[in-house]
Amino acid sequence: MTAENRDTTANKILAPRTGTEDNAAKGIVLMLLAIALLSAMDASVKYVSDDYPVIEVVFFRSLFAFFPIAFVVLRDGNIGDLKTRNLRGHLGRSLVGLMALMSFFYCLKYMPLADLVAISFAAPLFVTALSIPLLGEKVGLRRWTALLVGFVGVLIMVKPGSGVFGLLALIAIGATFCYALVLIFVRKLSRTETNAAIVFYYSLTSVVATGLLLPFFWVTPTFPDLLLLIAIGLIGGCAQLTMTAAFRAASVSIVAPFEYTAMFWAVIYGYLLWGDLPGWNIWVGAAVLVASGIYIVHRETNLGVRRAKAARLQAKR
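Below the sequence we write its predicted structure tokens.
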């Protein structure tokens, strides 16, 4: 699952809880299902990308992801949640998100699936680093250490100086950075905006932007490919809703680590469809990144709990 797909509205940050107690088993099952769906979408994107331009694939991905999301919004009667007080923030978040999406889809066309997924695991490192200048958060020695360890994992994977660290690796890292920047935007927007609004304006911006460019890149798809392009959007939308439900059911520290099962699916799809197997550097680097990422998630979760307790105590005074 590429970092772009984890941008399924930064659910770990935004999703409100529906109950007072976590349902760990439900959250884990939903997360595993969401990752399986997103991984199937990634593989489908890579499969069609040889014959169709990135702009066209992104257009179908964005347009048909609208349908399951709109269905849920209409079913729940939450049209009022689409009102916004920060249109400029939505536009910035949407444009950066679209940049990340297009970059990842471009890399999917040329890179082994597992290699790209492994590089995308660097997203939590960038989020933590960006939270310092953009959100004014303080990062202690432990998280700085985790950041440095994670950066070593990235270096192991891309092997600078060996010829592997080429343009595609740079684009993949840049896309991961853009995704991290999206999460920072989302954290800010979540203070005043609803989940529905954040998803809606991102999807709308993506459809309009790629739709305007589509006539210059259009390649008429065959009927089977048209069905697959539509399925890419529908699967992406359903996965987005499933991941949101997962983060509503259980805490971030329980659910988030299961995002890394994307590597399992990437290896399976990559081997079965293209005969790709990751090199030793991808396995070692991914393991280092996963370990540092899980530590950062747990550390930030614990700090969040402490801040919430402190705020409650302050309110009682």
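Residues 56 and 215 are 9 Å apart (CA to CA).
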